[in-house]
Amino acid sequence: MGKFGLKFAVYTVSVYAALFSVSALSSVKSEKPLLEDFGPATELVSNEGKSAFLGRAYDPLTGDLLYIERYQVTFDERGAHRNSLVEYINPDGTPFAVKQVRYDGVATAPSITFKDYRDNNEIRVESGLSRTTVAIRENGETNVSLIAAPVDMSMVIDAGFDQFLQQNWDRLQNKDPVPFAFLAMARRSWINFSVEMIAATDEQVQFTIAPQNFFIRLLVDPINLTYDATTRRLLRFEGITPIEKSQSGQAASGNIVARIEYEYF
To answer: What distances in angstroms separate CA 27 from CA 89, 136, 184, 205, 219, one per listed residue?
Structure first.
């Protein structure tokens, strides 16, 4: 999934796109597929409730449709997230990537499997309380790293950010920044961010996400999120996404900047 050995300026953007102090304990190279490294991926189970929704990603300048996110979410008997499947689809209807999310531990730090069909690369994250395993398969080679959990900071992985925001919803109403450590999967490191409420009406609440590092903040724009004030569902995402650009049907350098509008069924 792109080039991971990036210089600082590009590194800051790639870190920011992964949104949503690291100790790399070990790194192992392997030629095995990721599914063999960690065992078979868990299939979606539907013992309880399910829901589905779409996200349509538009070019913020031209308004052109860039891609579609199609979600299937499964809940347990208490209504908590159990797992989800996300398909990334081109405007012509062909899928180009898929992501599986498993909430089998800390709600804000689920386990992730992401595969980009355009270059056949994969990222897999197995979340744990004390350390997290990140495996990246690129150009036929798999690199596995063990990363220590962040110290004195709530850890957030991928879609777990929504769980983090829900847990801190009331606290955010004070308009004080709430810090968290976000896993930049491609960089195999935790990066400190903060989320802050910037506006609210009876219908909608707006939040902004920004890096805590002053120099990174100078280089990148914040990510803005709009939520429904009643249902607390995400309505709009504005900013750089974790999806790489496409060129001639292949993944290309640089990440897509988009406005994503969500529709629930």
So the answer is: 33, 11, 16, 42, 30
Q: Determine the Cα–Cα distance for residues 126 and 196; give it in Å rounded to an integer.
A: 28
Burial (CB < 10 A; 0-12, 13-18, 19+), residue 220, is middle
Dmax (CA) of the chain: 54
Phi-psi region of 186 (alpha: psi -120 to 50; beta: other; left: phi over 0): alpha
- Output the tens digit of pLDDT for each of the chain's 265 residues: 444 333 333 344 444 554 542 222 233 344 444 444 433 333 444 446 899 999 999 999 999 999 999 999 999 988 889 999 999 999 999 999 999 999 988 999 999 999 999 999 999 999 988 999 999 998 889 999 999 999 889 999 999 999 999 999 999 999 899 999 999 988 889 999 999 999 999 999 999 999 998 888 888 889 999 999 999 999 999 999 989 888 777 777 789 999 999 999 8
Residue 245: half-sphere exposure toward Cβ, Cα within 13 Å: 11
Name the DSSP class of 187.
G
Tokens linked to 208: 């902004």
User: Residue ranges of the domains in the chain?
Assistant: 8-264
pTM of structure: 0.82
Structure tokens that stand for 243 in this block: 């999806």
Q: Rounded CA gap, 65 and 60, in Å?
A: 10
How far is Cα 197 from Cα 39, in angstroms, rounded to an integer?
A: 40
Please give the single-letter amino acid code of residue 11.
Y
Distance CA 23, CA 46 (A): 37
Q: Is the CB of residue 53 less than 8 Å from the CB of residue 265?
A: yes
How far is residue 205 from each of residues 172, 211, 232, measured CA to CA in Å? 10, 20, 9
Read off the tokens for 43: 């299939």
Q: Please classify residue 26 by burial: count the beta carbons closer than 10 Å to its beta carbon, then call 0-12 exposed, 13-18 middle and 19+ buried.
A: exposed
